[in-house]
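Hello support,

Our group uses your service weekly, and this is the first time we've seen a run hang past the timeout. The protein is 4-hydroxy-tetrahydrodipicolinate reductase. I'm not sure whether the cause is the sequence or the server load. Input pasted verbatim:
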Amino acid sequence: MIRVGVLGARGRVGVEVCKAVEAADDLELVATVDTGDPIEALEGAEVVVDFTHPDVVMDNMRWCIEHGIHPVVGTTGFDADRLERVRGWLEANPGVNALIAPNFGIAAVLMMHFAQQAARYFDSVEIVELHHPNKADAPSGTARRTAELVAQARRKAGTAPMPDATSSELDGARGADVDGVHVHAVRLAGLIAHQEVLLGGDGEILTIRHDTMNRASFTPGVLLGVRRVREIPGLTVGLEHLLDL
Ligand SMILES: NC(=O)C1=CN([C@@H]2O[C@H](COP(=O)(O)OP(=O)(O)OC[C@H]3O[C@@H](n4cnc5c(N)ncnc54)[C@H](OP(=O)(O)O)[C@@H]3O)[C@@H](O)[C@H]2O)C=CC1
Ligand SMILES: O=C(O)C1=N[C@H](C(=O)O)C[C@H](O)C1
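Update from on-call engineer: The timeout came from a worker crash unrelated to the input. Re-ran successfully.
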């Protein structure tokens, strides 16, 4: 049995993670922590799943790593600087590993993978992400990661810069520039989490779309991370590394 703790246990995703851990024969839910609960309740856990908030996730990760607990993190808001700090904590605590995945949905991971594969064949790539209006960060972690993967693929292939004649614009009209890829964020009541990667070439458009229909959809990926994190050394970013893609 793997002893699992959950941070953000009363949140939209945390609730689903707790249910999934409780239902798994090989996992034991030993602690659930949310705002106002003492983090020390996690001390008996081997693996802690974090679905909290970008403002608190770094403190949570540091606490887990310094207590010899492997974090499996879905909370977003990571940039290169944050990832470097996590690597530093892991180096100072050998034997502790961490998994951070901007999206634990298997279909979402495939969407990112397919976008990365397709990116070099098109003149233009832009990303539109659409989420519920309670989301703290924009653009989404998934969109940021997709843009980075697309940009990496295009750099590697030596693809020409994307055509764009815009010479005057209202602030934000062209979205955020993530590694040279434009990312547009919609916040709309009624949505959960959705993303389109638009790839355009001469006379052809390819659209790769992913829709999250409920938050239980994240849990198979989370449980995969929980089961594997103890054996993947150091910091792993992205669930694709566990999917043999
Ligand atoms: N990687 C992935 O696959 C996915 C990632 N996410 C990301 O996960 C994060 C959480 O999303 P979601 O579940 O929708 O958010 P919610 O706001 O529904 O849940 C977060 C929970 O964490 C609690 N919380 C806040 N601070 C702390 C803390 N210091 N310690 C313990 N608990 C705390 C919140 O309490 P309170 O409300 O009282 O502050 C809340 O109950 C976001 O960053 C989101 O983008 C979401 C879906 C999938
Ligand atoms: O906040 C959410 O809801 C989600 N957050 C993640 C992100 O920022 O990419 C994953 C998914 O999009 C849902």
